[in-house]
Structure formats: structure tokens, C-alpha cells
Design brief:
- This protein is mainly alpha-helical and 111 residues long.
- It has one domain.
- Helices cover 67% and strands 5% of the residues.
- A two-stranded antiparallel ribbon has the order 1-2.
- Helix 1 runs antiparallel to helix 2.
């Protein structure tokens, strides 16, 4: 049994930022898709609306990434405080051994 006693604040923030930025790309794609469909269904002032939709879709991964970085750092900091007072997460880890290498017969030495 192992206890996770602390988490690196910066490493947690980086991981959260990357994961949230990936989610931001996905959300931005759907935002752009629905914006294009909506602009096609409602003709009129499409140019200004489409520019706004594209800008928001491009900035969404950046916003999500920054927000993920900040929240990841806060999460790791709060976890470290809680782990000091009540202990860390209990982890039950199991080592996985690689399969043994097959023995190859060597040719007999030349005579």
C-alpha cells in the first residue's frame, strides 16, 4: 500500500492545462459547427456573426488551457494541504513483470 503525500503544483497545472485545452478544441469545434449551421439558417448579417464565431472558436482552447492551468495549480495546492492534515490517497499498486525472454540456441562453434 502506498500513500500519495503530495502533488507537484506546476506539473499538475501543466497536465490540467493540456487536458482542458484539448477539451477547448473540441468545444470550439462544436461551437463553430453550430455557428455555421445557425448562420446558414438565418440569412442577413452573417459576416459579422461569422467573424465573432471564428474568433471565439479560436480563443476557446486558449481560455480553457489558461483556466485549466490555474485550476490545476489550485487543486494540487489544496490537495497538498489536505494530505498533510489527514493523509494522502491510498494507492494499491501492482508491479507487472515483463514476459521472460526466450532462450535462443546458439550455433555450435566452428571446428
Amino acid at each position: 500500500m502506498f500513500h500519495l503525500r503530495s502533488i507537484g503544483v506546476l506539473s499538475s497545472a501543466k497536465i490540467f492545462a493540456v487536458v482542458q485545452a484539448a477539451i477547448g478544441v473540441l468545444v470550439g469545434f462544436f461551437f463553430l459547427l453550430f455557428g455555421v449551421i445557425g448562420a446558414a439558417l438565418a440569412p442577413g448579417r452573417q459576416k459579422l456573426g461569422m467573424i465573432g464565431i471564428i474568433v471565439i472558436a479560436v480563443l476557446m482552447p486558449v481560455f480553457y488551457g489558461v483556466l485549466g492551468f490555474v485550476l490545476g495549480a489550485i487543486w494540487a495546492f489544496v490537495y497538498n494541504l489536505a494530505a498533510q492534515s489527514i493523509g494522502g490517497l491510498e494507492l494499491d499498486l501492482q508491479a507487472i513483470m515483463p514476459p521472460p525472454l526466450e532462450a535462443r540456441p546458439y550455433p555450435p562453434p566452428p571446428e
